[in-house]
Design goal:
This protein is α+β, with helices and mostly antiparallel strands and about 190 residues long. About 50% of the residues lie in helices and about 20% in strands. Helix 2 packs across helix 3, helix 4 packs across helix 6 and helix 7 crosses helix 8.
Length: about 190
């Protein structure tokens, strides 16, 4: 399977890219969120998910691994195919989708075009436990403090701690200039 492409950007539209990798042009379907993250540079690296069907082999592209991971979770839900998952990722940020699932916010998920009440409930039921274990960013990581906090939260979750308890422990550490390591050590003392 093709997990990433690194090449020259040939064509760019809000829903698809064409990337030249070693003389072969790959068409990659993208979300609007990924489109907004693509710079005007000629060279591009994009994470991909290849979907093979009887009649087609399709590449879906993501500028972040979080978005690709969310895509994989969404297409695992019965009734949500790759195109619907891309619509969801175009309508909401990855963190917003995770937050809606964790908070059992049917209305937010149902507000996405093509998602009805039953599908929204199925998404929540199927993915709630997975979202609690994941560390999708639900805040803007513009400052270095937020980045360090997010990285510390991701590390704690990957160590097996529940996201909510790890988040509360990081709140208690409350050191604004702390490095990722200091945040993790402080949170581990609390946990």
């Amino acid at each position: 399977m093709i997990a990433q492409l690194n090449g020259r950007l040939i064509e760019k539209s809000p829903t698809a890219l064409i990337i030249d990798c070693g003389g072969v042009g790959y068409e990659v379907k993208i979300s609007l969120n990924s489109y907004s993250l693509i710079s005007s540079d000629e060279n591009i690296r994009i994470f991909t998910k290849m979907i093979v069907r009887e009649d087609a082999q399709l590449l879906y592209g993501f500028m972040t691994t979080d978005e690709r991971e969310m895509f994989n979770h969404l297409i695992s839900v019965s009734g949500i195919g790759p195109n619907t998952a891309m619509i969801m990722l175009s309508s909401l940020q990855t963190g917003e989708i995770a937050q809606a699932i964790q908070g059992e916010d049917v209305r937010t998920i149902q507000s996405i075009k093509g998602i009805g009440a039953k599908t929204a409930q199925r998404v929540i039921i199927d993915l709630k436990d997975k979202m609690l274990k994941m560390a999708f960013s639900t805040e803007n990581n513009s400052g270095s403090d937020n980045t360090a906090r997010f990285e510390a939260l991701s590390a704690l979750v990957s160590l097996g701690f529940d996201k909510k308890s790890a988040d509360k422990a990081l709140d208690k550490v409350n050191e604004s200039d702390a490095s990722v390591e200091q945040l993790i050590k402080g949170a581990l003392k609390i946990l």
